[in-house]
Every structure is written in structure tokens, then in C-alpha cells.
Amino acid sequence: MLFLFFKGKLELNQRKEGEKVGLIVQKFGGTSVGSAEKIKNVATRVLEEKNNGNDVVVVVSAMGKTTDVLVSLAKELSSNPSKREMDMLLSTGEQVTISLLAMALAEQGVKAVSYTGWQAGISTESIHSNARITKIDTKVIANQLAAGNVVVVAGFQGISEAGEITTLGRGGSDTTAVALAAALNADKCDIYTDVTGVFTTDPRYVKEARKLLSVSYDEMLELANLGAGVLHPRAVEFAKNYQIPLEVRSSMERESGTIIEEEASMEQNLVVRGVAFEDEITRVTVLGLPQSITSLSTIFTTLAANRINVDIIIQSTTAEDTTNLSFSIKTESLDETLQVLEDNKETLKFNRIESEVGLAKVSIVGSGMISNPGVAAEMFASLAKNQIQVKMVSTSEIKVSTVVEKEHMLNAVQVLHETFELTGAFANA
Amino acid sequence: MLFLFFKGKLELNQRKEGEKVGLIVQKFGGTSVGSAEKIKNVATRVLEEKNNGNDVVVVVSAMGKTTDVLVSLAKELSSNPSKREMDMLLSTGEQVTISLLAMALAEQGVKAVSYTGWQAGISTESIHSNARITKIDTKVIANQLAAGNVVVVAGFQGISEAGEITTLGRGGSDTTAVALAAALNADKCDIYTDVTGVFTTDPRYVKEARKLLSVSYDEMLELANLGAGVLHPRAVEFAKNYQIPLEVRSSMERESGTIIEEEASMEQNLVVRGVAFEDEITRVTVLGLPQSITSLSTIFTTLAANRINVDIIIQSTTAEDTTNLSFSIKTESLDETLQVLEDNKETLKFNRIESEVGLAKVSIVGSGMISNPGVAAEMFASLAKNQIQVKMVSTSEIKVSTVVEKEHMLNAVQVLHETFELTGAFANA
């Protein structure tokens, strides 16, 4: 039933202002609550939703630069602060915001009550700095909603079985919002941010970028992982698992955002939905590995054990019965990667290592690709026609990623945006 | 046994550095933890006590001006913020300090763990902004001490039965420290502050002021209530009730402070232990009250219901069968006091009100007074000899307070400090 609401035509997808939908979870990030003025604005947005006849649960992050200030205080005191104490420290940021927002709501005549993560019944794993939510006891929140209160919940935090304050790591407040929406069986989860929605590509670099009316969870996952940055992949996965419709929208502008749901009902004729990109990519090539069955698993197990994230992997066999292995990493991990490989040279038995910095990744994403086998070929042809050399390729069912030289990145994005007719293909709202 | 330790001679009262006494609760106020540097200094002080072989529980306040910053943020959002949300907001201040101190301790090689009020098992009344501690469950702290950890606890805060975060009001961190000392059966509670101890009078105004080696709980209560300001009366009362020896000492200087215990064992020959004073006092006189049995109780019940604190009260009967009533208040309460009285004129049936601003209170305190009936007379004589007019008088068993004109205040303090031989009567450490 939840899901049905977003099926069908555009008119049903885009909720009309004033339309009653029951229970809404709203999430406002750090920039949306960065000052007293901005908190007042958030209170107004909550009031509007309340005036529409909806019950509202609001999840907020720490104000603007609060987290940075706390982190630098910690660094003044310790070169390697304990994760437990960092969670204790950082969780105060959201606690400040919830109380201030509750006050701002009361000032606007809205009955509101704030709760920290532990008070809101958000249980997590007993892991600090990157815990996953294990359970939400909605009793307290449900009681407050029943009493007509807006419930303001601190994002990013929870409590472990032992009663320790934990935090959820990057994108934690998005995850809190989606998890609460799932636990409370909310009708919708609105993610308010500083952009007006999800775009075909980054509008700061490509002026023809268009806002998407809707994308599927899977597309959003690829876009999120590929650095689109508006929504954390963990939160998208959570929403997909529990079929929570999300809307990414602006906290300042009063226009509809981008709906994220199971099937993108609009624009289905579009094979490619967006072009994502990120720079500061490095390719590392390990030469002369023995052709044993275990050598591939050994090398990536070693890298993973040292928390080095590897993205694209390419293996090629040489004439000398050895294997050359290339993989891409973020450039910031290069020194550590080289160190780890050298430290394990005896076990891994490779010959030597080469690396190439100054690369970038450009990817096209769209669930329409599954039934369109020519998409990757069209992408390569288009890049070749524009003298852009592809250094590495990786594909999934709904994505093709290429590694190119960094200086060609924006050109590649522009070219692909045109090739796949994303430019001006649909309206901006 | 606890108490015995501080009985007897001076040598036993003043703990030698390095002497093992078991479990010590240390409390550091906002100025002592006002920066990363100062938190490092606090960690050093904790380390020293740990190196003496003691178990240590540390109670800290919010860093320096944190509370002020949070209060002004709240004021930007609400003219009258809810006390519940203010407690939610302000309690973050101590939570920041505990985590930073735990990190600073770890950096100095001291195993430490931080706890908020609710984690530390501090239960309070279900009242916001001024709750009293009702119960302390010491299980968590005791376990951590047994594991060899220094336990850092957030002062000023607790949790109500309903799971709400509460704060203890003014002097709350002092109260937390003393209450924990009582609950844990600690050997001593050290209150670290920005002065080196309790003085015979305020050393900022009277250069002959001397630090007291010890004062009794009752004397400290009078001194605290009379504006000496180093220690909150609630904390002193708590310490008295549970016979917890306190030491007020400097967080920066490494000298002994002032011991507060049942009987001040030193300086018992001194009749007067200190001279306290405060300015901005106003005398209000209500003229022509009917001489009914209830008029006195009615007037002060009315003032109390409006949260106006009345200090000294003097009643005099006139020839016309009416009563004149004078009382002293803080000058900041004058407007409200006059308003309340005018609003209730019909009930109270008085004739008119006079008020005199620009007054000050000067008091002498000392448990030796009980057995020395001439002390008040000596005080008045000494003030008269110096042309200082006494406008109001109030006495208790261990205190005589006088109200004088503000311009005479410091002269009166100086004169009394000499009269009762406090100047240079004992050494400064």
C-alpha cells in the first residue's frame, strides 16, 4: 500500500502540497540547521507539513561545522582518540540541534519534544564510530505522536546493548531517518538538503544538467556510490530493503525534489539516467604475480585487512605464465597501498609495482541498460570520437564506469551527457 | 572511619602529597577545563593522584563559556524555552568535557572512561533545570574502578524516572561530586577551582585576607550563602549530611587548599573565621500593615510564590496599631517585588512602600561565636567607631550580618577583618 502510492503516473508520484499522507519522516542535514536562522526555517518546513495534517518525525544532524570543531578539539588532546570517546563527543552535536529545533517549533506554536538516539529507542551494534542499527523500539516516539507532538530525533547516533553511546558513521543521519521511517511504517521519508534533487550530472560543472523526477533505488545506489553525494548508500540500501519511498529535496527552495522508489516510473524510455564522476583516482598495477589460484584472493584480502578500498580490478595473463593485475584506488590511499604491498612482497611473490596518478572515473548509470546491450559500446565510441582514452572499464547491470585522465574528465561527462540525450530531455520540475 | 581521618591535629587534616587514601573524587569547574591546554593540565592532576596509588573519579563541568554560548543560541530561538529542552541542550556541555578529558588521560597513559549523568547512574527528581539527586546506582562506576580505570563523570546532570535528561541547577557539578563521594564511600572530595582555598575575606578587595586551613560545614554554609562563591551551599549541605571531607583547592597551583569538615580542628581559638560581603542590596519597607496574626505570613508567602528571595526581615510595631515591615532583597529583584506587592495591595492591606537602594551586606562568620556572646556587640562598636551606620541586622548562631551603605562596604570589611584579628593570624599554607 505504501509502495502503491508511488506506482503509476507522475501525478501520483509527486505529492501535491497540502495532500494528507499520514506520517512523514523529515531529515535535515548539517547545512540546513547551520544557524539559529536556518533552524527557524526548518521549524517552518515542519510546521507546513504539520499543517497539511501529517504527523511528523524530524531527524537532524549537528549544526554546520560543529563536528569539525569537536574533531579538532579532540585532535588537540590526542593523536589517536578512542572511538568510544569520539562517539561520546560527537553525539553532543545532534543533541544541541534537537533541543534548539524543539524550542524553535514551540516558538512557532508547534508542540514538539526532542530525543537523543538512546532515548528514541535506537539500538545499534556494540561498535564505535561505524555501528549499524540493529533494532528500533518505537514506543516512546509513537506515544508522543499520539499525543500530537512533533518528535525531533538526533540523527547519527544510537545505544549499544551495554548502554554505550554509538554513532553510525558517514551518512548516519540519512540512515537514522530511513530506519525510523521503516520502523514507524511512515508513508514517506523526505531528505532535505542543500540541492533541489538528484541531477543527471553535477550541475556545478555541467550547466545542461537536469533534475531527475525519479530514480530507482538501484540507480541511486550506483549514483551514491559513484560520488553523487546527496544521499548515503547505506540509507538507500535501507530504503530499498524496507521499500521506503524517499524524496531528496531542498530545505530552502519550495520545489519538488527527486523521488527514489522501486521503479522509476517516469523517463523509462531513457536508457541512461545520469552521469557520475570523481577525480583523484590512481591506477596501481602489480606485475609478475604467479599464476596460482590463490594469488588474486591473497592480494585483495591483504588490502582489505588494511582497510584499503579497491574499486575497479583488471587481470591479464602474460606470456611468461605470470599475471599482471591492475586496480583503481583513491589517490589518498596510494602511499598506504604501496606500503602494504611492499610489506607483503614475500607472501604475494610479485615482481614489481607501477602506479599512475592523475586519473578520474566517469560512469553512466541507468536501469534501462539491462535491456540495451549496445550502451557500453556507444559510450566507448563517443569517448573515442572525442579523443578520450579509456584506461580501465568496469560494468554492472545498470552502470558502466571508465577511468580516464583527469584532464579529460569534465569533457567526458559533457560528451556522455549529450550522447545519452540527458540534456534537456525532461523538464526541471 | 572516614571522618576519623580528618579528626585530630593539623598534620592529619592536611594530607601529605603521595599519601595513599584510597578513593578520591575530584571536581574541576568550567574555568579549570576552559581549553584543550587546561584539560591537559587537569589530566596531569588526575595522573598525580593516580600515581599516589588512589582510585580516582573525576567530575567536570562544561568548558568555560560553553553554557553561555548555548544559552544565547536558545534565546535566539525562543523567548521562553522549555526547561526540558534547556536541560537537553545544556547537558551537552559536560558531555563534551568528559570525552575530551578521557582522551587527554589516555594520551598521558591513564586508562579512563567517561560517563554522562544517566550512564553513571545518577537519578534525580522529575524536575527540569533544578532537580535534586534522588539516588545513585554506583554499579557501573564501581566496575570501572575495579578494572583500574579513572572514571570521568559529567557533573550537573542526571536522569529522571521517565528517562528524561535533567540538570541540577546552580552549583550542580559540586553537588554531583559530593553525592558521588557519598555514594562511593570516597575518602575525600577535592573541589578544584580558580582560587587556592577559602579566605578570611575576598583577597581581591582586602590584601590582608588569609587562606583558612579548615572551616566547618556550618561555617562554610554561611560563607557560601553570604556570597563567598567558591562552593555551592547545596554541595556543602550534602557533604555535611554524609560527612564527606571536602578540600577546596587550586587547579593551577600545587598548594594545599582549605579543608571543610565537621569541626574545624585548627584555629579554634578564632571566634570569627571570615568576613563575607555582597553589594547591590535593597531595603524595602512596607508601612501601615494591619496588626493581624496572618499579615506577616501572607506577605512572605506572596513574595515566595513569586520567587522573590528575601534575606533579612525586621518587624516593628507603631503607635497606631499598625506594623512596619522591612526586608532586604537583591536590587535586581526590586521592580518585581514592588509589582507583586502593588498587585496584592488589597489582600495585604498596607498603607505604602518605601525602598532604599545602594546598600550592601557585611557579615562575620565563625562557630566560636556560639560561646562568645559579646561578638555582635564588638562588631557594632567597631563599625560605629568608624562612622559606619548599620541599617539592618540579622544573626544566627555562627553569623552576624549587617546591612550598611554600599560606599562603606569595603571599609567595613577591612575594619572587621582587623577587629577580629584575621589579618595575619595564621600562615598562608
From TrEMBL, chains A, B:
Protein name: Aspartokinase
Ranges for domain ACT: 284-367
GO cellular component terms, semicolon-separated: cytosol
Keyword Lipid biosynthesis included in the entry's annotation: no
Domain of life: Bacteria
Gene field: lysC_2
CDD domains per the UniProt record, alphabetical: AAK_AKii-LysC-BS, ACT_AK-LysC-DapG-like_2, ACT_AKii-LysC-BS-like_1
Naturally occurring in which organism (per UniProt): Pseudoneobacillus rhizosphaerae
Keywords: Amino-acid biosynthesis, ATP-binding, Diaminopimelate biosynthesis, Kinase, Lysine biosynthesis, Nucleotide-binding, Repeat, Transferase
